[in-house]
Amino acid sequence: xxxxxxxxxxxxxxxxxxxxLSYNGLSITPAxxxxxxxxxxxxxxxxxxxxxxxxxxxxxxxxxxYRVVIFDDAMTEKNRSSNGSLVENSSKFPSGLKSxxxxxLHSQGLQFGVYSSAGRFTCGGYPGSLGYEPADASxxxxxxxxxxxxxxxYNEGNSGTPKLSEHRYAxxxxxxxxxxxxxxxxxxNWGDDKPWEWASTISNSARMSGDIQDYFDRPAASCPxxxxxxxxxxxxxxxxxxxxxxxxxxxxxxxxxxxxxxxDMLEVGNGGMSYDEYKTHFSMWAAIKSPLIMGNKLYDLSPxxxxxxxxxxxxxxxxxxxxxxxxxxxxxxxDNKDRWGVGEVQLWSGSLFGxxxxxxxxxxxxxxxxxxxxxxxxxxxxxxxxxxxxxxxLYDVWGNETVIPAxxxxxxxNGTVGIEAVNEGRWYYNASETSWADGLASNxxxxxxxxxxxxxAAGTLSAEVPSHGxxxxxxxSADKGNTKKKxxxx
Length: 490
Ligand code: GAL
Hints:
By secondary structure, this protein is α/β, with parallel strands linked by helices.
């Protein structure tokens, strides 16, 4: 029996086991897609959807897995019809929702995401679905919905204890199941009543914080809890990447195939952060296994931001078949605090499918610094830890093998050449054709990252990390080749 056969067998068992954890068999890896809200607020229409959907396809995003297009709030008329049903907004969507969805989404291999609130109104003041769950779910299903983002506004006091929230959200979970259509169910209750403790048996993900803002670490009065408060009773909005990352660090172990903590949509491409800050944001959302939902204007992306969002080595961390989130092991204060008083360095690591590991050094300090940790620290501080006592090959997930250079990205963005053709498709990964697991098993450096040397057993990892930046590696056992050889000889 060849080793690749063994590997394949192993994967199908892992997949079967993983799908059993999902309450509806969906979202075995975190959802990926695009949403209107961060870049357009409630001001979007048929053209917005068409233009961005077309870019998802032509820029290669769809084939990296960014498939769901979420109409975030304001999709219907302001009032229900006299018989109580939701009414589509025909001035915003003159072709009709069904026809728009068929033409721009489903026929292009994209998915349709709808939005509502488990309350009387949505957050934007449109009709909410509390009390109308079966009727609304069957209307969405008739339009071809594949995903529901379900908010928490105007919940009329049906919150405040985990039971109250769970019961309210479970009604929609059952309604979606009754439609007979596969609809990924994504709670947006901002961490209220700790959904990570109860939502995995009724949904596929739940937001764990107030709304994100396009800032790295700027505090906002509207987001009153700090990054160290793992549970926040007033989640608010205007939360920075650093704030959400801190909150998420306490609950990463709650992720599992089929249920993910949602750190909110990506801001990459919206202009409020530096290149290094966006890299940190994207890398950590990916490795924590948050859903990766872009919230930008896809026809207005800079080449650098495009390079971040299409980095297959980072997306491979997010879509890893094992589905375990990276964990934070150390936070060290430095003297280089920025004007918000933030100056720490964070060490994260986690395990990936097939025995690989991921390690991240985050530098939130105000200046670039050399960061070094030995393998014992990297793997949680236990000196007998097996992982600390072996040699690893290092792959830099931000090296030049996986990040499309700005000049090539610019050509793709302006339509001069397709992503699958630029430099003979060197930066193009088509996950629709080759799964992440298969790509990883074939040692494709597009997925592993750029080879960056080796660290010996009990050795030290070291990198110069820019201010607000990140160093991140995939580690693959340096003995793996030997193990494979031995197995072949058997
Ligand atoms: C908020 C939600 C946002 C967005 C918005 C729409 O409550 O957290 O992500 O959906 O409502 O009005």
